[in-house]
Design goal:
Three copies of one chain form a homotrimer. Chain A is built from seven helices and six strands, in the order E-H-H-E-H-E-H-E-H-E-E-H-H. By secondary structure, chain A is α/β, with parallel strands linked by helices. The first copy, chain A, has a single domain, classed as Molybdenum Cofactor Biosythetic Enzyme, Chain A (3-Layer(aba) Sandwich).
């Protein structure tokens, strides 16, 4: 894939976890996701940890999309009552990319049947893409790697470079 | 999978069919689904037959979630005008588990291409899971078996047992 | 599959493209999709080209469902700002057939990973089915061919022929 306008491949990582936000559990997923993003060619420009509260998550995502073209969350995608990351993400997205979420579950399902319970979504806000990953370090990195190769192209399209390739 | 709080694996079966509700056709799917649930370790605590009318279906689902942790419907997931089970289900769910519906269609598609026309959904209401199966006995049992192994874990998470496994 | 009421297999093709609507680019996808529909046994009764504007697309789809039982769009399903075909489609559909869109992406994903970025949907309006295909001629024909064999059965169900087969 060649591009006439080089894409600023900037990313932010938002760890969503009550216990990590309280400092009771060290955040292993955030650093693992950050490393996977760097390996994929992204510069990680921001990292935050936040508790599982919907409105603060929305505000954090919105703020991070000002700094980075790809905002990746980890945690809060399950079915327990406190899991609200998908709801927060949907609230701040202009449109959803259903196929990206499907692909994460499809690839994830090859490793664990519980991938089907993940409610993570992917959406667009302005020129940024927001991607929800599960909370476990392995699950998060596997889900990210299932779709990361789509992201440079997606971000290019959002930049207005819609030339057919 | 071990659990410190043993899960009450209770299920209810709701057959949605105009002809069965009128007594013109005997309900083969309800008993077939009930048997599959028992084989999977669930106790079937309630069975009902109802016609394809949205509001009564909603009321029946809501009532059955008071009695059972897993409420399984069969019928009304197609594309004909009278098929309204997914709409009724969505109306009484707190949140949807899109990946579970995807998995039913993905597995179903290995047997019949018409699985793609099923509009069945899966969602959560309180601490119960609601699962829409197609109306034919074979289709219903195949769809159930595609995802039943996720249900004990899902119900455990809904009980507040969110320990990572 | 036999039918007591033979199905009128009529189709319309709506090309959604700013450059084709302005006459700056010749429409290759519309004719390619039309040919694929004919090969699948459909009679193509209408063809239109329209720019990527949501309300006019909605009006065109609604108008074409009066003439044809299957309305196929090509273009406007991507993630760029001007891509609004799925939004226009959703606005005029009574209900969505999520599994059909999933299947297009699943099959498309076997040829190109970018299939996951397609936001195309499939839905029902009255007795007609509306299907969003991507804008490239190959992508459009491949996506159509992934699901076209479901359409005669779907249209039959929408005609009120719900006899179990």
């Amino acid at each position: 894939m060649s591009s006439s306008t080089p894409e600023p491949l900037t990313a932010a990582v938002l760890t969503v976890s009550d216990s990590s936000a309280r400092g009771e559990r060290s955040d292993l997923s955030g650093p693992a996701v950050g490393e996977a993003l760097r390996l994929a060619g992204f510069e990680v420009v921001a990292k935050e940890i936040i508790s599982d509260d919907q409105v603060p998550i929305q505000q954090a995502i919105a703020r991070l999309t000002e700094k980075a073209r790809l905002v990746v969350t980890t945690g809060g995608t399950g079915i327990a009552k406190r899991d609200v990351t998908p709801e927060a993400t949907k609230a701040v997205c202009d449109r959803l990319l259903q196929g990206v979420a499907e692909k994460m579950r499809l690839e994830g399902g090859k490793k664990t049947r519980f991938a089907a319970l993940s409610r993570g979504i992917c959406g667009v806000r302005g020129q940024s893409v927001i991607l929800n990953l599960p909370g476990s370090p392995n699950g998060a990195v596997d889900s990210l790697n299932a779709v990361i190769d789509l992201m440079p192209h997606a971000l290019q399209l959002l930049s207005g470079n819609t030339k057919h390739q």
